[in-house]
Specification:
It is built from 22 helices and 8 strands. By secondary structure, the protein is α/β, with parallel strands linked by helices. The structure holds guanosine-5'-triphosphate and magnesium ion.
C-alpha cells in the first residue's frame, strides 16, 4: 500500500535522522521533499500546503532543533500531523435503531456491491442480523451479483421485480423489521457520471428509509477524482462517511489522505481486496504508521484473530508484544496468510515490509523465494537466527535453490522487521529466549 510514498518519505527521514543537529535549512529542505512526495502521491495541493505548514511550524521550534534526536522528532511530528489530517480517531458505524439502515452510494464499478457483502459479513460476525437490498433495477446482472454474494454468506437479499428503487428499499426495511433483522444494507445503482437523475433517485430513497449511515464507496485508485466525487455526493445527500476501496492496488494515497480534510467526512472502512473478508476498519493512526513504513501490527493481530485459529493468533500477539517474534512465526504467519490471498496485504502491515517487497512493485515471486529460504532452515535456526553461520547459510541456499546472498537478504530483512516491531511495542526488554518459550 502506498509503497512509493512510503519509500520517498523514508529517504527524507533517514537523511534527517542521519544528522546529529538539524538547522532550519535542513528542515526546509526535508519539507520540500515531503511536499513533492505528497503531491506525487496525488494528495490535494491545499491539503499538502496546510500539512507541510503545520509540520514546519512545529519542527523549527527550539525544543525540536535543540533536542538530542531532532530527526526522530520530525518523524514524530509528521506522524502526528498525518493522523490528525485523517481525522484522529477511528469513526465507527452508528447503528442504534432496529433495524438500522446503511445506504451505499457511488459511481459505477467503485465497489458498492462487493462492499455491501463485505459489510454484511462483518456485521454477521459481530452477531448482527443483516439484510442486503438490491435496488439497481437497471441492470439485472447487478441483482444476480448481490443474490449470489448473499447466498454465499447466508444473508437474505431483498428485491422486488417491477417496483421502483424507492419502493423496494421501503419494503425491504419493513420486511426486516417484521422478521427481526437488524441492519438493512442498500446497494444502490452506480452511474458513470454524477447525473441529476441518479442524485434525485438517491434523495428519494433517503427520504423513504432515513438511513442511519450513507456511505460513499469510492475507488482509491482514482485519487483526487474520488475526493471531488465525495464532495459532490456530500453536497447532495449528506454522507456520513466513506468506504475507500481498492487500497490493495496501485493507489498512491492521495484519496486516503485528502478525503477527510476536504469533505469533513471520515473514512470508515477500507477495501483491501476482492474477497469478502478484505474490509478493514479505518484507523488514522494505523494508516499513518503504514504510510511511514512502520507497519500496522494492530490490524495484523486483529486480522489474525479473525481468521486464524485462536491459539495461534493469541500466541502471535503475545510474541509480538514480548518482542519474541521469530523467523518461525514469520514463516507460519506467511503460510497461514497465504490462504487469505496475496501476501502483499499482510506485508503492508509488517514494519519495514516495503523493503521486503523490493523497491519496485510487489513481487510475489520474491516473497515465494523468502518463504522457500525460511523453509529450508531447521526449527532451531528459525528460532535463533544468530546461529546461522557460513556453512549453514550454504546449506540453506542449496536446500532452497538460492544463493547465499539471498539467504543474507532474508535474514537482514527479518532483522529489520524485528527491530521495527521492537520500536512499535516500545519494549527493549530482555524477555526469555524463544527456545525457552517453546520448550525446545
Ligand atoms: N482489488 C480490489 N478489488 C475490489 C475491491 N472492491 C471491489 N473490487 C472489485 O471491483 C469491481 C467492481 O466491484 P462492484 O462491487 O461490482 O462495484 P459496484 O460499485 O457495485 O459496480 P456497479 O454496480 O456496476 O456500479 C469488482 O471486480 C470487484 O471485485 C477492493 O477493495 N480491492
Ligand atoms: Mg453493484
Amino acid at each position: 500500500m502506498f509503497d512509493s510514498l512510503t519509500n520517498k518519505l523514508n529517504t527524507v527521514f533517514s537523511r534527517l535522522r542521519g544528522k546529529g543537529k538539524l538547522s532550519e535549512a535542513d528542515v526546509t529542505a526535508g519539507l520540500r521533499e515531503i511536499r513533492l512526495a505528497l503531491l506525487e502521491a496525488d494528495v490535494n495541493y491545499k491539503v499538502v500546503k496546510e500539512l507541510t505548514g503545520h509540520i514546519r511550524e512545529r519542527a523549527v521550534g527550539e525544543e525540536v532543533l535543540q533536542s538530542l534526536s531532532p530527526g526522530q522528532q520530525v518523524v514524530k511530528i509528521v506522524r502526528d500531523e498525518l493522523i490528525s489530517l485523517m481525522g484522529g480517531e477511528h469513526a465507527g458505524l452508528s447503528l442504534d435503531r432496529r433495524p438500522s439502515v446503511i445506504m451505499l452510494v457511488g459511481l459505477q464499478g467503485s465497489g458498492k456491491t462487493t462492499s455491501a457483502a463485505k459489510l454484511a459479513l462483518k456485521l454477521k460476525k459481530e452477531g448482527r442480523r443483516p439484510v442486503l437490498v438490491a435496488v439497481d433495477v437497471y441492470r439485472p446482472a447487478a441483482v444476480t451479483q448481490l443474490k449470489t454474494l448473499g447466498e454465499s454468506l447466508d444473508v437474505p437479499v431483498r428485491f422486488d421485480e417491477g417496483r421502483t428503487p424507492v419502493k423496494i428499499a421501503a419494503a425491504a426495511r419493513e420486511w426486516s423489521e417484521e422478521n427481526l433483522y437488524d441492519v438493512v444494507i442498500i446497494d444502490t445503482a452506480g452511474r458513470l457520471q454524477i447525473d441529476k437523475e441518479m442524485m434525485s433517485e438517491l434523495q428519494e430513497i433517503k427520504a423513504a428509509v432515513s438511513p442511519d449511515e450513507i456511505l460513499l464507496v469510492a475507488d482509491a485508485m482514482t485519487g483526487q477524482e474520488a475526493v471531488s466525487i465525495a464532495v459532490t455526493f456530500d453536497e447532495r445527500i449528506d454522507l456520513t462517511g466513506v468506504i475507500l476501496t481498492k487500497l490493495d492496488g496501485d493507489a498512491r494515497g492521495g484519496a486516503a489522505l485528502s478525503i477527510r480534510r476536504i469533505t469533513g467526512r471520515p473514512i470508515k472502512f477500507v477495501g483491501v481486496g476482492e474477497k469478502l473478508p478484505d474490509l478493514e476498519p479505518f484507523h488514522p493512526e494505523r494508516m499513518a504508521d503504514r504510510i511511514l513504513g512502520m507497519g500496522d501490527v494492530l490490524s495484523l493481530i486483529e486480522q489474525a484473530e479473525a481468521t486464524l485459529d485462536q491459539d495461534k493468533a493469541e500466541r502471535l500477539a503475545q510474541r509480538i508484544k514480548k518482542n519474541q517474534f521469530t523467523l518461525q512465526d514469520f514463516l507460519e504467519q506467511l503460510e497461514e496468510m497465504q490462504k487469505l490471498g496475496p501476501l502483499s496485504g499482510i506485508l503492508d502491515k509488517l514494519p519495514g515490509a516495503a523493503k521486503l517487497k523490493g523497491d519496485t512493485a510487489v513481487d510475489e515471486s520474491e516473497i515465494g523465494r523468502s518463504l522457500a529460504i525460511i523453509r529450508a532452515m531447521t526449527l532451531e535456526e528459525r528460532l535463533q537466527p544468530s546461529i546461522i553461520g557460513g556453512s549453514r547459510k550454504k546449506r540453506i541456499a542449496r536446500g532452497s535453490g538460492n544463493k547465499v546472498r539471498d539467504v543474507n537478504r532474508v535474514l537482514g530483512r527479518f532483522k529489520e522487521s524485528k527491530k521495527a516491531l521492537k520500536l512499535m511495542t516500545g519494549r527493549r526488554g530482555k524477555g526469555r529466549s524463544p527456545l525457552d518459550i517453546l520448550g525446545v
